[in-house]
Structures are given as structure tokens and as C-alpha cells.
Amino acid sequence: MLNVTNISVTFNEGTLDEKKALNGIELEMAAGDFVTVIGSNGAGKSTLMNVVSGNILPDAGDVIIGGKQVVHLPEYKRSAFIGRVFQDPMAGTAPSMTIEENLAMAYSRDKKRRLKFGVTKKRKDMFRDYLKTLNLGLEDRLSAKVGLLSGGERQALSLLMATFTNPNILLLDEHTAALDPSRAELITSLTEKVVRESGLTTLMVTHNMQQALDLGNRLIMMDKGQIIFEANGEEKERLTVKDLLQEFQRIRGEQFEDDRAVLG
Amino acid sequence: MFISMFGAVESGVIYAIMALGVYLTFRVLDFPDLTVDGSFVTGASVAALSIVNGVPPILATLFALLAGFLAGCITGLLHTKGKVNALLSGILMMTALYSINLRILGQPTLSMLHETTIFKQLGSFWSVTGIDNALNSLLGVFGLDRLPSTWAILTVMAVVTVIIKLVTDFYLKTEVGLALRAIGDNKRMIRSLSANTDNLTIVGVGLSNGLVALSGALIGQLGGFADVNMGIGMIVIGLASVIIGEALFGTKTIARATLAVIGGAIIYRIIVTLALRVDFLETGDMKFITAAIVIIALVAPKVHQVQREKKRRIQKRKQLGGDSHA
Ligand SMILES: Nc1ncnc2c1ncn2[C@@H]1O[C@H](COP(=O)(O)OP(=O)(O)OP(=O)(O)O)[C@@H](O)[C@H]1O
Ligand SMILES: [Mg+2]
To answer: What GO cellular component term, any one, is given (chain B) (predicted)?
Structure first.
């Protein structure tokens, strides 16, 4: 479904600030694969997501989705078949618009936007059914402004908006990191449920190693712009947080720098 | 007094179309578009030139709308594709339009006094209905001696403005319109939902200036001339209308907000009319007053908020046992 080959990204090339953020990344994901991505700060995880989403044009390499080369396709076109949830709960929804209007905008993702009412009776019923799956009571607040929702509720809505049109690829970049533990737990379980039920091909960045182990069928560890470790299927099932830390130390010969990861 | 109030409402209803345009950019797109000062005159100029050259007034007015739309699109292009700062792209376009407007007019002022304008046509059609007599005799009962010469303009323009409002309301609720509103609310999100924000912005700024130019064309025909300087400060007037309307009538829904903008435009004209009756004020002072209204409307809520927060803190400190140095 997603083929990322030999991707390199350098920021500020030729200046003192030159930074090689990605260095020859190779990643192949079959339809329905759920890959969790871990790695220290600055490892290049977000940059990889931005390359897949079309936010950043890589210096080299291809991005192939469903057999189609999309590396030159601008972000807004690519997002017809890529769903995305950001770390910031405020980023994925429009605060001064209502829940139903936000959902209507997401519903138009893979269709041509026309001069017809975005929110119709039929769509409202559909939105209500989708919202019920969140179990947050949002189905009774269709015409409430999204700005009134809590961060967790907004992130749950963002997740729904990113997934309910069944995009080819789902990108999650630390989408639970800005929430308190109980809400993060809620979003994590919703993510697990949505991805399982719709069989979405998913790439999820997290700093929480336990979360990276609990979710998905594959795991990759990134450092300094490279994928330094990979575990699939049963091999991943058997992994523990301790294994991951040891693995990192063995490959890089240094301590995993991120305290958050250890505590998580 | 009644006559001048009548005139204020009459022109207010026409200026409301301009205010709706300003609402589209400032509020919906969150794009502070200063093209308005130029495109308002472009509208008046294109209409005047067309009419003087024998184009039917209704067509001339539509030309004006189109010209404003194009001007707005160019501002939008400058900002989105040219990556020019929003304020600057409007200022550049406004400046360029000044010269263009002068070219269109061929002289600083073009008179339409001896031409058939849309309102003269309307008047001759209207007089057959006898509505004026009926309404004026009704008013005569109240002992008003000086009565409006025609109700045609007010009535028809009110209908036109309301139709434009309803179309705007509809547009902003369509799939395209939702995406347009999201640009002003959360641009990054709507891009991640596969909307071409550049094109939407260009069209949005275009539509806004189309309305502004339409308003300019109608104001020009109402006054019987187009003048290259008639747009100076128009953007501030538009803003004042939007802000006054929002403050008085609320913004709970789109339909409410657009109605508020129309109300704001009319009230603004009434304020101007009243201010001009004050002895020590001159016509030239109006721009200052308008700017003052906008400044107060922008600053007052913030100051109020800060004050309230401060008061709350002081109260809380007192509750917690007071300051030891007090
Ligand atoms: N727009 C940019 N301009 C310059 N440098 C950048 C830019 N974006 C990212 N970088 C640099 O590229 C490197 C990789 O950044 P990236 O955001 O991908 O890391 P990350 O793995 O997501 O880290 P984190 O865990 O902190 O989110 C970092 O060193 C970062 O400073
Ligand atoms: Mg990151």
C-alpha cells in the first residue's frame, strides 16, 4: 500500500545549520499494516510523516501509494487518500465551526466539493452513528462549536474525521502526547479500535514505548534520520520495553536519550 | 431630519453590500484585505464609463461586479501564489487600482447626471405603481411636511441586499463554503482534508471585491457620479459596519452574522448623518470618527477582559487572607 524508497531530506543545505533529517529511509507497508514508530527527539519521525503526507518534498527518493508515485503530488491532493491526526488537539478541527460542519468537511475529503449543502439531514444521521462509536456523547451535540470541546474530545473527533472516509493511509504523529493520561488512554483505545475495524494502513509515531508495543503489527525505531531497528509480527509480540532500550544501546552504543520514553 | 435619516438608511442598504464583502474577507477568510478602497471605485468607474457609453445600466452594474471580482482575484493570487503578506498584497492592489480607475474614468470625476442610471429606470417603472403616494400620504398623517421623493430605491435595494445576504448564507453552508470558512479558522486542517486553500482564497477574495465593486457601482449611480477618490477609507467604513453590527446583533450563526453586518452598515450611515448635524464637526472629520469607532471596538473588549481578570485576582487574594503589606 505504501512504499517509501531511499528517502533523504536535508534542511538548510549548504548553510551552517545544515541538518540531514532523513537519510535513505526504506519502508514498505502492506495494506492493513499498522506500524508504530519510535525514536529520540530529532530522529526524523515527523519529517518522515511530512514526506508521506506531501508537506515536504524529499531531496531524493520515491513515495508510492497504492502503486502510484505521489512524490510530486501536493499535500492538498494527496490528503484525499491520507488521513492525519496531529499532536496538537487544536490542529485537527476548526474551532469556530460546529461538530457537524467539521465532519462534513472531512466527509468531502475524497470527493469534489460542490455548491450543495454540506450538512444535510441524511448526513447528520450518518454523523450521529459515527459519533456514537466514540462513546463520548458527542452525537447529541452535533451543532455545538468544536471550540467548546475538551482537548481529548477534540482529538477523538480529529481521529474520527481522519478515518471515517477510509483513507488509504492513516498518519498519527504523537496524537496522544498532549493529553492527560486518562484521555491519552481513551484515544489510544479508540485508535486501536478504528484501525482494527477499518483495517487502515497506519503509521503511528509515539514516544510511549509501551504504546508502541501494544499497538500495531510492526515496529520501527529511528535515529539520526535512519531506521535502525525493525520488528514484525510475532517478533514484535515478544518484545518488551527493556528489549527496545537494550537494542538501542547495542546499535548506537549510547543510552536512549529520551527520559519520556523510559517513563512511558 | 426625517429626510436625512431616510437618505442614511437608503445609502446604508447599498453600503451593506460592501460591508458583506468586507465580512467575507475579514471574518470568514481572516484575510485583512485592503483592496476594498480601490475596488469600490473600480466598481463605480466601470459602471459610469459603461453607462456613459450607452451600456444598459443593469449590464453596466454587472460589469462592475466582474471587474471587482477580477481585482480581488489578483490580490488573492499575489498573496497565495506570490507569497506576499496579506496586508501588503491588498495595499499594492489598492495602489495599482488608483491609476487604473483614473484611466477608466479618463478624468478625476465622471458625471452620470444626464445619463439613465439604474435608479432612474427604476424610478420611472416605480411611479406607475403609485406606492410612493400611498406611503407618503400615510406619513403625512404624522405631520411630516418634507417627504422622500421616492421609496423605490430603498425598497428595491433592501430586497437586493437581502437576496445577496441569503445567497451568501447559502454559499457559506455549501461544501465549498465550509472549506472557505475553515481557511479562516484552521487552514492547516482544511488542507489536510484535501481542499485547495490557494484557489479557495483567490475565489473568496474575488467574491468579496465583487460585492464591494457592486456596492460602488450602485453608490455611484445613486449620487450621479464616479470619483477617483470616493473609495478613500472605505475599508475602515466596512470594518466599522461589521464591528458595529456584530456588537449589536451578535454572530451566533452565519445568517445572524450577515444580518448583523447589514444592520451595522445602516447604523453606521445613521451615525454619520447624526454626527454631521453636530455644529463643531465637519464632513472631513468623519474619517477620524470612523477610525475611532473601529479602534474602540477593537480595543475595548481586550481592555475589559484584562480589567476583569485583574479584579478577579485581587478579589481572590483578599479571600485568601489579604496582602501582608496592604
Ligand atoms: N523545517 C525545518 N527546518 C530545519 N530543520 C528542521 C525542520 N524540521 C525539522 N528539522 C530538523 O530535522 C530533524 C528531524 O526533525 P523531526 O521533527 O523529524 O524529528 P522527530 O523525530 O519528529 O522529533 P520529536 O520526537 O522531537 O518530534 C531535527 O533535528 C529538526 O531540528
Ligand atoms: Mg515529531
So the answer is: plasma membrane
Gap from CA of B146 to ligand 2 centroid (Å) = 72
B200-219 per-position pLDDT tens digit: 999 999 999 999 999 999 99
At B323 the three-state DSSP class reads coil
Q: Which three cell numbers stand for residue A109?
A: 475529503
Question: Pocket residues for ligand 1 (CB within 6 Å)?
Answer: A 11-12, 19, 21, 39, 41-47
Q: Which residue has the cell 472549506?
A: B179
Quick one: which H or E segment has residue B110? strand B109-111
CB contact under 8 A, B171 and A115: yes
The alpha carbon of residue B181 is apart from the nearest alpha carbon of chain A, in Å, by 8
The CA distance from A253 to A173, in Å, is 27
pTM, full prediction:
0.91
Does B272 map to a domain?
A: yes
> Residue B294 above 80 pLDDT?
yes
Tell me, yes or no, whether B312 lies in a domain: no
Q: Identify the residue among A65, A108, A164, A171 best suited for mutation to test binding to B, counting B beta carbons within 10 A and taking the highest.
A: A108
Total tally of structural domains belonging to chain B: 1
Has residue B320 been placed in a domain? Answer: no
Residues of chain A with pLDDT under 50: 262-264
Which CATH number belongs to the domain containing residue B104 in this structure? 1.10.3470
- Domain range holding B223? 2-277
Cα–Cα distance between B309 and B260 in angstroms, integer?
A: 29
Tell me, letter by letter, the H, E, C secondary structure of chain A.
CEEEEEEEEEECCCCCCCEEEEEEEEEEECCCCEEEEEECCCCCHHHHHHHHHCCCCCCEEEEEECCEECCCCCHHHHCCCEEEECCCCCCCCCCCCEHHHHHHHHHCCCCCCCCCECCCHHHHHHHHHHHHCCCCCHHHCCCCEHHHCCHHHHHHHHHHHHHCCCCCEEEEECCCCCCCHHHHHHHHHHHHHHHHHHCCEEEEECCCHHHHHHCCCEEEEEECCEEEEEEEHHHHHHCCHHHHHHHHHHHHCCCCCCHHHHHC
- Domain residue extents for chain A: 2-93+149-263
- Level-2 CATH architecture, domain A2-93+149-263: 3-Layer(aba) Sandwich (3.40)
Q: Does the beta carbon of A73 lie under 8 angstroms from any beta carbon of chain B?
A: no
Asked if the structure places residue B282 within a domain, the reply is no
